[in-house]
Design brief:
Chain lengths: ~280, ~450
Amino acid sequence: MAAITPARRAGWATTNLVVIALALIPVLWLVSLSFKTPAAVLDPSFLPAQWTWGNYHGILTSAQFLRPLANSIGIGLISTFIAVVLASMAAYAIARLRFPGKSLLIGTALLIAMFPLIALVTPLFTIERALGLFNTWPGLIIPYVTFGLPLGIYTLSAFFREIPWELEKAAKVDGATPFQAFTRVIAPLAAPGMVTTGILVFLACWNDFLLAISFTSTIASRTAPAAMQYFSGGSVFTVPTGPIAAAAVVITIPIIIFVLFFQRRIVAGLTSGAVKG
Amino acid sequence: MAPIVLNHITKRFPDGSLAVNDFNLDIADGEFVILVGPSGCGKSTTLNMIAGLEDITSGELRIGGQVVNNKTPKDRDIAMVFQSYALYPHMTVRENMGFALKLAKTPKATINEKVSEAARILDLTQLLDRRPANLSGGQRQRVAMGRAIVRDPAVFLMDEPLSNLDAKLRVQTRTEVSRLQRRLGTTMVYVTHDQTEALTLGDRVAVMRTGVLQQAASPKELYERPVNLFVAGFIGSPAMNFLSGTLEDGMLRTSLGDFRLSDRLRREVDRSGTGRDVIVGLRPENFEDAALVSPDNRPHGITFRASIDVLESLGSDVFVYFARELGKGVNSAELEELARDSGRADSGASGETIVARLDAATHIGEGQDAELWVDTRAMHIFDPATGRNLSLVDDDGGTASVQAAPARADAGEPQAPTPDAAGSGGVQAVPGQAGPPGEAT
């Protein structure tokens, strides 16, 4: 590698600043908007002339937002849990066992991940209507798990492959059943991988708009991103920009905290010391 | 505590490769058996089959009298120490050692007691609350041992438990393992590729090669009476020297000199149908500085001259290396494999150089043209085609013992034994017929 000259350093710093600014300014703009009064939304100044909590107060007292927020959290957590449990078992099998059709299975899983979601919306809509899943929690949970699994299996099998196989043999010799070996030895070691996978699946569910808007019709199962679409302004002629911005901030902040909090755990190499390295 | 019986055990992997072929071994209760061989010889696979970590393709495995072929490791009452130790990184030393007992739903008080006891034996008491990541290699090794002994199992299995330690610690731990086994009196099967470990630890050593058990015997027996070329070359350090020999008129011609063979040996060689070419094996300690050999001993061997390439003085002994023309025949496939496997290609096994261990009193110096003597009573003769040790055919001491063999061997023969064959074992040296001077090669 070439030596890092001051000019190089300055070049990189500028590039980084530009990228960060491009990424953050819209978010900050959104935050700023959420504090503006309805009359000031078209005001081009960055900082609100008059700060107001009115938008937050409005959405956080309205069932039109609170119920979808609860749906989002519930559907997201349940989907994540199911996806991580299923993905770890599948990934473990893929990482450890040799069985016929293994590469076919991995291929199919990846194929699902590659498929454009929009192409599946119409058939899934028809299927859900026929099965009575339309506008229910399972109606969203099932597709979320389905589309979360390929990614989960892929990430987790990489993590399982990193775990020395001898640990599992040791557990077996120590008297563990295969299930015990998995839950007591392998799964704790793969915990960072499971957390990573969980975060990725949860983010996908939390941020999903397409399926949420297609498979729901009332706030009984509508999730927060979809619900924002149905906010109403002060009159039929007002666009509810302020409440939408506030809602967007409300659903973005928890994710940022969540990721920051688990970042250390994702990175921590828990397997060190298992075998002589 | 339990005997282990391996009866025609065979392992074939799904891809069709044969890892272990018709392995038979009876391991007595409390016996310490070592499986040794070059890498890829199937020794670890055999151990894993005993542990229940690999399926047995065919054959019968009995532990403590029970057939355990289809039992899971947990029902076999075994404990195993892995080469990598395989400690659970998310558990403390205490939890690691108590894990098996916890799975067996042993009461907490008992677990604590047993773990403390094992920790005391292995000097781990101070480390019980640490995690494996914070232990040194030697400490991890002891934790792995501790995890095995708290179980009080019927059988201990060890898969190269010392190979990750540095040389000094390895010697120290080797002694500890040996002491531990005597103290516990538990049947132990130990896998290693290190022949020193094998010879020093085992009651009995089983030498394997390409999935086939070559010989299972006490270390002494393996050393003195190897059944074939492979065992002969594998056991012993420095390795046995191999030379080609040609049989002509009852004489064995080698580049060191000519030996007279007993009728028995000659007959054996004839019967093996190998023609006149054989491989002669001589251990480094069979050689001696001719000046130091007493006149009584001289007739038991031959003297020859050699120019010494390298001399290594170890204080107690002197190793000398000299080159010899080996001739055809000695480059047997088996020998080549042996040299490759053991990585000793340059220390004598490969064939170009002969190693001799001489008494420290010798005055031979590097670069000298020295007169050496070799004791031909301890000579081994191998069939180059099959590698079989022809000098062991009679199970009564063979060529290694001085007395007896010729008379008995010749008893059934029509022709009379040569008069000078008696009294010097199966091989008769011919004094005065030393080989060409050492400037060969």
